[in-house]
Design goal:
- The chain has about 80 residues and is mostly helical.
- It starts with a helix and ends with a helix.
């Protein structure tokens, strides 16, 4: 079983990754794909879909509906992260 320091280190690594452009992109893509799949469910969980759409729109908006992130969007995000 990992000790507290090992767990803390993994949490710190995961948090750093989440805050990186790559981490933001991965979460954005996962939300986009999950929302699309959930919309096709026989009984879609509307409140969960709405919450996921809120997160995607306001925090994780790198992955767009065109299945790619535009150069302009990547530059905007890069500049925001590095300012």
């Amino acid at each position: 079983m990992p000790d507290k320091k090992q767990v803390d280190d993994k949490v710190a690594q995961a948090t750093d990754f989440l805050m990186s452009m790559r981490g933001q992109y991965i979460i954005s893509q996962a939300l986009w794909k999950a929302i699309e799949i959930m919309r096709t469910d026989e009984y879609p969980e509307i409140s969960n879909i709405k919450d996921m759409e809120f997160l995607r729109k306001n925090l994780f908006n790198m992955y767009d509906e065109g299945f790619h992130t535009t150069d302009e969007k990547m530059l905007e995000i890069f500049n925001r992260e590095n300012s």
